[in-house]
Predict the 3D structure of the following.
Amino acid sequence: MSSDEWIGEEKNLKKKITVLTLCAVLCVLCVSAEAQQPGRVPQVGVLVSTSAAASVSRIHAFQQGLRELGYLEGKNIIVEYRYGEGTPNRLPGLVAELIRLKVDVIVTDTSRASDAAKNATKTIPIVFTAVIDPVGDGQVSSLAQPGGNLTGLSILAPELNGKRLELLKETLPKLTRVGFLTREGDTGRQRFKETEVVAKGLGLRLQFFGVKGVDLDSAFDAVKRAGAQALTLPPTTLLLTYRVQFINAAAKNRLPAIYPGTPYAEDGGLMSYGPDIPDNWRRASIFMDKILKGKKPADLPIEQPTKFEFIINLKTAKQIGVTIPPNVLARADKVIK
């Protein structure tokens, strides 16, 4: 090879080295710039079966949980809220909206909302806050190992229906007939059978009354005709959505009633005993946080309620002519005067 050829080859080699060096520098700069870009802000969809007005305390509790974990809405997390307004047929459309927004997690409340989300997606994690029986209703495989893309908090506590009967009996010692008022259907009748065992032990005759649709007048007429002296109402989406109507109907018929949660007594129900649902919502934020950090819903065991409240509304007691015994008042977590 001549000297001129060597010189030309050397120049070509230098050019190649220069080009490779520039490419390497550009790659480093690109990687550095990418690393300096802020991470994607996670998006969470919240799907509630009822209205915004009926869910204020629950949403506030969820937002409190977010703040405790360091999340600030609009800054390092985006939360999209959707409300079914008590109309189950609206839920699938609302889920579709959240999916189009590409949310990272969907937080739901009841079985209906959870089912709507489950039917719409098998990949987006779903955290429920107030499903009554997630195993029995088919949302998850087991409490310890949910499987699939759902997990969260259950309010399954069949013994609470019996506890409500005990409180009614203590409040009304002469009580003999109690109406079990719930949505018509197989699930309601199963809950009735479970509670009937406790009722017999208390010397009470428990009578089943199913509400069809939202026909409360017919249901309460049936209760009166059957001679029920008081009512116990287990948790259902129907009851939560139309709780004011249920409470007003019970007052109109002067029927002492015990409800499954604090909002009912606060809205005028005589008594309530049940899980602190807002606390479940607060705890749901912990599930959400774990999922956003990489945990799979299938590996997060379902949790049960840890806080329960017994509330008495003395205004309603006076209105319907019921005297609450001192020993029952002493057990209340809150007395509304």
Notes: The radius of gyration is 29 Å. Residues 19-37 have pLDDT under 50 and may be disordered. The chain has two domains: 43-156+277-299, 158-276+308-336.
